[in-house]
Design a protein that fits this description.
The complex is a heterodimer of chains A (383) and B (544).
Chain A lengths: L1 H15 L2 H4 L3 H10 L2 H23 L24 H13 L4 E2 L3 E3 L2 E7 L9 H6 L3 E7 L7 E8 L15 H37 L1 H15 L3 H12 L3 H27 L3 H8 L4 H38 L10 H10 L6 H28 L5
Antiparallel strand pairs in A: 1-3, 2-3, 3-5, 4-5
Chain B lengths: L5 E12 L2 E13 L4 E5 L6 H8 L7 E9 L2 E2 L5 H7 L4 E4 L13 H13 L3 H14 L5 H4 L9 H13 L5 E5 L7 H18 L2 E6 L2 H7 L2 E6 L2 E7 H6 L4 H7 L16 E14 L9 E14 L3 E5 L6 H8 L6 E6 L2 E2 L10 H5 E4 L13 H12 L5 H14 L16 H13 L5 E5 L7 H18 L2 E6 L2 H7 L2 E6 L2 E7 H6 L4 H11 L5 H8 L3
Parallel strand pairs in B: 3-8, 3-9, 6-7, 7-8, 13-18, 13-19, 16-17, 17-18
Antiparallel strand pairs in B: 1-2, 1-4, 4-5, 9-10, 11-12, 11-14, 14-15, 19-20
Helix pairs in contact in B: 3-4, 3-6, 4-6, 6-7, 7-19, 13-14, 13-15, 14-15
The chains are: A alpha+beta (383), B alpha/beta (544).
Chain lengths: 383, 544
């Protein structure tokens, strides 16, 4: 009862007020400014598109990201479906030849392949498996089986597969793998950044607000962590805990929050001298109230901006670790792993390097433009 | 009469803002004669600075200018940068309000004064040096031969403003534009700077355009006045006529805008609320971990006072006098030595984390209405923040009701409580800050320069509001200010502080009528010199 009574008038007055009385918050101002920045908006759209594609794309893709096509190892990127016409006959012939039967001339009719086969003994219907086992053919069957069962026509449908980005050295579809790579990279980027944000903001705000000895101690801890070589730290973690997806967040987050803590501490130092913080102190508001209501919300402008610049940094870091082989585990992949493989196979297939790199570049550009746009939109000096 | 040296005709300045266009200056005409002092007077937002900035080609990038500004017949609007630069900085120069930030902290002052000489006259820095020393002597900086090699931080605010003036005079300008040159300075320094400007003007024979909101200065200093309001010149004429026979209502309002009335005295038997004895505040500076010389700064030195219920004690002093420090120490916002008793209870030994009532019954209002409100909270949240601490049991609706009450009490529309502080003017913000303290129904309020950042007419309203609140709630005020006119209108008793010590104290009437200490006399002289016959002006202003 009391609940309804208490929310009633507030809700009413909110609804009754004209638009002007609701005021424009700083965030709404920032959004209006951001909207005018075309590069930032396009970047945001690209990021959303990539994120949606990386989440739902692999579900819709005809090729699972870990499916191996032994016949299609390292085929080039193409809009045309595989197999190419000239490869159908030799492939079918080689598949049928494994059945050790006599065969005549192979005929291709649209998507159906047929070859007359005969043998000294009755044909074993199980020989169609040799055809089905191939990635190129499907629905293998023997038709027109003669009365004695020694000859007939082997018929199979050609499976037409599209590899938009080609396949990798293990015959896996690069398109699906790139989408998974984007998914993993974005996830690591966002999650590790959130880890850094959560630790860094609270740590920096506390250190800056309390100041003095607390500040000195807390910031010396940060300095010590700074002095740890990052790669050494990651190798240590990998040695102790094995290669692990979660470890990536921890490793990257554990390094990146240090910068965040310093930024927030600096902001806090100047904020706590502001009169509105002193006014809150004079009202008797305790440290937790001041930190959550006054300090942290006012640091958010620079923090959000730093966050958008941190995400690409983290993605690059993850790529770097994966490139070194300390990153995610096969068959899972990330853009860093893909690029690393692509670089190793540069001569065999350029597409292996080009497409994952393009995806990474697109993400990094978009994030940087968005970060720039946000910085301009949230910059209080412009106001 | 001679031809005007600078003419403005139909000058418009517009700014493109996110919310549309701001028409800052709306077609003003102005003339400046040689050797004349022209004052442009107006409150904040009247466009007085922008008009002159436009003439100098110093408009921000989102603004544009229309109309005509001629200097000795040459059109300045639309003049290419290079040719404009030959005039500004040499023939027309400027000094600004903030002497703390208009000098570059990285360069010696001599080098900065030499800059216009090197730039406009092609001197080398060695050739410029004698001229720089001469200029420093001209602006009466002691020991100019040594001061020429000083960095800005080694100089006081007044000296920095003198350096700025020296810089502006370097090339014998025809016109000196002074944009609120003394607003950031203490009154006694202000008087010295004005004296200097006056003297230099007669000696060097230049025209001065003086932009200010302070009519006292205008009266003392100017020959002719333009009164601006919302981008328009509402009145112009010789100083004498403007002050004796103002024709426009706005001018009359400005002339009458000094806070009026006196506070009714407190009854003799009013109980003492706050007793402070021998308060000392000492800051320990330097002497860090790695050494460095430690020294003590005694900001407040043995001050005692006794504040009765319903009483206002005005604490007067210039910057660095320790008046704000005293106010904060009394509320235990700063550590101090000495005895503080509030309603008989000893405040110095109270554990503030447990005894929340201290923060409720003793409140403070700050000077800067822009800095004292958190930009990320709505007005409603700001006003009710104290309730979260002191009455945590209140429901949201109840808090909202109290916020409406408090905002109505300070004459703000309660419908505004969902807005953010940046949408309010300075005066409105100060009302919000007052509402924030009043919602807790305190007994003692420290007012730390609550009117200093506001225009005169707004000051008057805030003073009236504070007096009304005091009467309604029997509040006791500790009114800290450097503005003697406001203190006179607010306080029963005045304490004059200098360098942490009390130099004079007494009832407001006594102190203002017959100041004893030489420092108080100097303060009074500086503050009221320009307004000697202000009473006459007020009489005129009150005529229909």
């Amino acid at each position: 009862m009391a609940q309804t009574a208490s929310t009633g008038p507030a809700a009413l007055s909110g609804a009754d007020l004209p638009e002007a009385a609701l005021g424009s918050s700083l965030w709404r101002d920032a959004w209006r400014r951001l909207r005018r920045n075309k590069a930032a908006i396009v970047s945001a759209a690209i990021l959303i598109l990539l994120a949606v594609a990386s989440i739902f794309g692999p579900m819709l893709s005809p090729h699972p990201y870990d499916r191996v096509y032994p016949q299609y190892v390292r085929v080039a990127a193409s809009l045309e479906p595989y197999p190419r016409e000239d490869r159908i006959i030799p492939a079918f012939a080689s598949a049928v030849s494994r059945a050790r039967v006599e065969m005549g001339a192979v005929e291709v009719d649209g998507s159906t392949v047929r070859v007359p086969v005969s043998d000294d003994e009755p044909l074993d219907p199980r020989i169609v498996r040799y055809v089905d086992r191939s990635d190129l053919f499907d629905h293998g069957r023997i038709e027109n089986l003669s009365a004695d069962g020694r000859s007939g026509v082997m018929v199979a449908e050609v499976t037409r597969l599209r590899f938009l980005f080609g396949t990798d050295g293990n015959g896996r579809d690069l398109f699906a793998r790139t989408l998974i790579g984007i998914r993993i990279s974005l996830a690591i980027g966002l999650l590790a950044s959130w880890v850094a944000l959560a630790i860094g903001v609270s740590y920096g705000a506390v250190a800056g607000y309390f100041g003095g000895r607390v500040d000195g101690l807390m910031m010396r801890v940060v300095d010590i962590l700074y002095s740890l070589p990052f790669v050494f730290f990651v190798i240590l973690l990998v040695v102790f805990f094995g290669r692990n997806f979660v470890l990536m967040f921890i490793a990257v987050g554990a390094i990146e929050w240090l910068d965040m803590a310093r930024i927030v501490r600096g902001q806090t130092l100047s904020l706590k001298r502001q009169e509105f913080v002193q006014a809150a102190e004079a009202l008797g508001v305790g440290a937790p109230g001041i930190l959550t209501r006054h300090i942290v919300p006012n640091t958010l402008g620079p923090v959000v901006v730093y966050l958008t610049l941190l995400v690409p940094r983290v993605i690059l870091l993850e790529s770097f670790l994966s490139f070194l082989g300390l990153g995610v585990q096969e068959p899972l992949t990330s853009l860093g792993v893909l690029i690393s493989e692509g670089a190793a196979n540069l001569q065999g297939g350029r597409w292996l390097l080009i497409y994952p790199s393009l995806a990474l570049i697109l993400i990094l550009f978009a994030l940087n433009f968005l970060g720039d746009g946000l910085r301009d939109a949230l910059d209080p000096k412009d106001r | 009469m001679a031809d005007p040296i600078l003419t403005m005709r139909g000058l418009h300045v517009r700014f493109r803002l996110p919310d549309g266009e701001l028409h800052a200056v709306k077609g003003i005409d102005m003339d400046v004669m040689p050797r004349e002092t022209v004052a442009i007077v107006g409150e904040s937002g009247s466009g007085k600075s922008q008009a002159v900035m436009a003439a100098m080609g110093l408009i921000a990038s989102n603004g544009w200018v229309a109309g005509s500004v001629r200097y000795r017949g040459q059109e300045l609007i639309g003049l290419p940068h290079r040719r404009l630069n030959r005039i500004r900085g040499e023939k027309i120069t400027m000094i600004f309000q903030e002497p703390m930030t208009s000098l570059d902290p990285l360069y010696k002052v001599g080098r900065q004064i030499a800059e216009p000489l090197i730039h406009h006259r092609g001197l080398t820095s060695r050739q410029a040096r004698p001229r720089v020393i001469e200029l420093l002597r001209l602006v009466q900086i002691p020991r100019p031969e040594q001061r020429v090699d000083a960095y800005p931080h080694e100089l006081s605010g007044g000296q920095r403003q003198r350096v700025m003036i020296a810089m502006a005079l370097a090339n014998d300008p025809d016109i000196l534009i002074a944009d609120e040159p003394t607003t950031a300075l203490d009154v006694t320094i202000q008087a010295q700077i004005l004296e200097l400007l006056k003297e230099l003007q007669t000696r060097l024979g230049m025209a001065v355009i003086f932009i200010t909101h302070d009519l006292g200065i205008v009266r003392r200093f100017a020959d002719r006045v333009y009164v601006m309001r919302r981008g328009e010149v509402v009145e112009e004429g010789p100083v004498r006529r403007i002050f004796s026979q103002p024709s426009h209502d706005y001018t009359k309002m400005l002339l009458a805008a000094e806070p009026e009335g006196r506070k009714p005295p407190v009854p003799e038997d009013a109980p003492a609320l706050l007793d402070a004895g021998n308060i000392n505040v000492v800051f320990h500076l330097g002497g860090g971990w790695l050494g460095g010389e430690a020294f003590e700064l005694r900001a407040v030195d043995g001050v005692s006072l006794s504040l009765h219920q319903g009483q206002t004690i005005g604490i007067v002093g210039e910057s660095g006098s320790g008046k704000s420090t005293l106010g904060r120490a009394l509320l235990r916002l700063l550590p101090c030595e000495g005895a503080i008793r509030f309603e008989g209870r000893d405040l110095t030994t109270v554990d503030l984390r447990k005894e929340r009532w201290v923060r409720r019954e003793l409140q403070i209002v700050f000077q800067d209405p822009y800095g004292s409100l958190s930009p990320r909270l709505t007005v409603g949240q700001i006003v009710t923040e104290g309730l979260l601490v002191h009455e945590p049991a209140l429901s949201r609706a109840e808090r909202d009701r109290r916020a409406i009450q408090a905002l109505e009490e300070v004459q703000l529309d309660p419908a505004m409580r969902n807005r953010y502080p940046h949408e309010f003017s300075g005066g409105q913000r100060q009302r919000i800050a007052i509402a924030r303290t009043m919602i807790l129904k305190p007994k003692v309020v420290v007012l730390d320069e609550p009117t200093s950042a506001l225009d005169r007419s707004v000051q008057k309203e805030i003073v009236e509001l504070l007096r009304r609140l005091q009467e309604a709630h029997r509040l006791s005020y500790l009114f800290i200010s450097h503005d003697l006119a406001v203190v006179r209108a607010m306080a029963d008793e005045v304490i004059v502080m200098k360098e942490g010590r009390v130099v004079e104290r007494g009832s407001t009437e006594e102190v203002f009528a017959d100041p004893k200490a030489p420092y108080t006399k100097a303060l009074m002289a500086a503050a009221f010199a320009g307004t000697l016959d202000r009473e006459a002006a007020r009489a005129v202003a009150q005529q229909p």
